[in-house]
Write a structure and sequence with these properties.
The protein is α/β, with parallel strands linked by helices and about 325 residues long. It contains eleven helices and twelve strands. Strands 3, 4, 5, 6, 7, 8, 9, 10, 11 and 12 form a ten-stranded mixed β-sheet that branches. It has a two-stranded antiparallel ribbon with strand order 1-2. A hairpin with a 2-residue loop joins strand 1 and strand 2.
């Protein structure tokens, strides 16, 4: 039996006359009579008896119509639910990204996203960039924010930002006023030589900011003094603000400094601090997913409106 047959039996039970039901269902009377016989044959029971008042349900027919109505109600609820999912008013979005981004740019856009899709359940999975592409392929996440190139042809990606690392120092640090402004750069520059003898506050070795820092030390051939290792970039910034050392901070993370806790930032004069490309990535099979595309658009729009975005690209 199909939904159409269930609907036809219900309508005949309500109208009690083939002619009335056929008119309501926009079918011919012979076609409707054949449909009743077909359903009765499938069930093995007579569903109606003829009376002067019209067609009346048999006991078996009453049981059939009761269940048929429940089925049609569930069908209606299912259709409504699927429509909601199709319009992304409900559902799930799982975002994978490095830990530093989850406390930086992500909170700034999730408010807007949740305003558009209030019924969507959001899950955030923190992982290093080298893991994110594999997590996409395993469908553990729907969209990734990553600093690494994408290798799989099953993954679509778009560039969000090309940026560089900055040196962050406290306004109380003796080198805070020694930067040299260069036209076209968002921040003053300092020489790597000026940083020798400073205490560095670094993240742990498995984090990408630390890897960039180690490359910087190797290129400039000096051992940093008095290392302090911290897991959170927010903690790194707070320790730097209190002049317990200097640190490396991505340009995009500067956007979220409170006005009363502003660090002093420098570019490196010889450009030996690394630059990288920040990307969003998702499976090509999900390219038509409006929820993912909206998230990526909000993220991109937010970055383009950031104070230093023009210098970063």
């Amino acid at each position: 039996m199909n939904f159409q047959e269930l609907e036809q039996i219900i309508c005949v039970a309500e109208e009690r006359r083939i002619s009335y039901a056929a008119e309501k269902l926009f079918v011919s009377q012979p076609a409707l009579s054949q449909a009743i016989k077909r359903v009765e044959k499938k069930t093995g029971y007579a569903l109606f008896v003829r009376t002067p008042e019209g067609l009346v349900l048999t006991p078996e027919g009453e049981g059939f119509v009761k269940i048929a109505r429940q089925i049609m109600t569930l069908k209606s609820e299912l259709s409504a639910n699927l429509k909601e999912v199709a319009n992304y008013h409900i559902g799930r979005l799982t975002i994978g990204l490095p830990a530093f981004w989850s406390s930086g740019i992500l909170p700034a856009i999730l408010g807007k996203f949740c305003g558009l899709y209030p019924g969507v359940e959001i899950t955030i999975k923190e992982a290093v960039s080298s893991q994110l592409e594999n997590m996409l392929l395993k469908r553990e996440i729907d969209v990734a924010i990553t600093m690494l190139d994408i290798n799989s042809n099953k993954v679509s990606h778009s560039v969000l930002l090309c940026e560089e690392m900055l040196i962050a120092v406290s306004p109380k640090n003796k080198i805070a006023g020694r930067g040299i402004f260069v036209e076209g750069l968002a921040y003053p520059t300092v020489s790597p030589e000026l940083l020798k003898g400073q205490t560095f506050i670094l993240s742990y070795t498995n984090q990408w900011i630390r890897q960039f820092a180690d490359d910087f030390f190797a290129v400039n051939n000096f051992e940093p003094k008095g290392l302090m290792f911290v897991n959170s970039i927010e903690t790194i910034k707070q320790l730097t603000l209190r002049n317990l050392g200097i640190s490396f901070v991505p340009m995009s993370y500067v956007w979220y400094d409170p006005p009363n806790e502003r660090l002093v930032y420098f570019c490196i004069k010889d450009n030996s601090l690394p630059k990288w490309t920040l990307r969003t990535a998702s499976l090509k099979a999900n390219m038509d997913n409006k929820m993912i595309s909206t998230f990526v658009r909000l993220l991109s729009d937010h970055i383009k409106c950031a104070p230093d975005a023009e210098q970063a690209f």
